[in-house]
Each structure stands twice: as C-alpha cells, then as structure tokens.
Design goal:
Length: 163
C-alpha cells in the first residue's frame, strides 16, 4: 500500500540564497503560529522567505521578515503587518541546543523552507555559518565540475557502437 505523499517535497516558500550564503550544518523542523487567514494565503504560495531570519528571545524562537501576503478573500481580521514576527514552536531542549550553537561566533539561524505537513505549516530552520567570497567561488567551481562530469557520462552512454 502506497504511503500518502505529503507536501514536504514541494515547499510553499524556499530560501534559495541560504545555501549560497551559508554552510548549513544542522536543520530542524519547527511549527509556526499563524493567525487569521495567513494559512490560506500560505497555501496559495503567496509568501517570501528571502529576507527572513530567526531570533531567540526569552527562551522562545521568533521568525522575522517573512512576508505572507494578505488573503484576497479574507476578512477584517487579517493581520495588518505581513512581515510581523511569528512565533516558532519548538521543544525547550531544541531551543537551548540551537541557542548554544548560535552563540558561537559566525553562526546564525537561517529559515530554509516552508511546507505543509499533516495539515500544519512547518518551517525548516537551519544553523548556518556564513560563507566568505572564496568559499562561494569554490562551491560554484565544484558544481561546474560535477555538471561537466555528468554531461560527459551522458554523452558516452549515447554513443552507439557499430554492429
């Protein structure tokens, strides 16, 4: 019997620059506290994670600058600010572990993607260490070499031998 596929494979919003700007060392799944019709707007894909970041205050984790557009068919109870701080739901032990990691110099909390899992909005948040410019060039060079190797292997497989 086939397992019902959830939306983990298809993110609603993704931070593509995160892997370009940071070495992601650890990732953890967190729930999000949403109000009103934000979840409906999120399901339609009207959100943006590009400038988002996470902070830890008073033992709680918050997501800042994630833009969720107001729902078009919504009512007056839509939040006024689409980039308001949203609380993330994590266990205390997870927050303490993340806080200890982030306190080291050069580490930050980076939101990676938003998806729906079992009907709930989830955020994959990673602990990242900033890349320097030469690290970015090195990563691009490795990606180009991999692409060239795959292209050569495909071409070798296409060559047919005469009978």
């Amino acid at each position: 019997m086939a397992k019902k596929k959830d939306f983990f494979d298809k993110p609603l919003a993704q931070n593509k620059k995160a892997s370009h700007d940071y070495f992601i060392e650890e990732a953890i799944e967190a729930g999000m506290v949403l109000t009103g019709t934000e979840i409906k707007s999120l399901r339609t894909g009207r959100s943006n994670l590009n400038d988002a970041f996470a902070t830890i205050r008073n033992g709680e984790m918050f997501l800042h600058n994630m833009h969720i557009a107001p729902f078009a068919q919504g009512n007056i109870h839509n939040p006024a600010d689409p980039t308001r701080a949203r609380k993330l739901l994590l266990h205390k032990a997870q927050i303490k572990k993340m806080l200890a990691t982030v306190k080291r110099e050069g580490y930050t909390l980076v939101p990676l993607k938003v998806y729906i899992k079992n009907g709930y909005a989830k955020l994959l948040i990673g602990v990242g260490r900033g890349k320097k410019q030469f690290d970015k060039r090195e990563t691009a060079a490795k990606r180009d070499v991999e692409r060239d190797i795959q292209r050569i292997l495909r071409e070798k497989q296409k060559v047919s031998f005469p009978k």
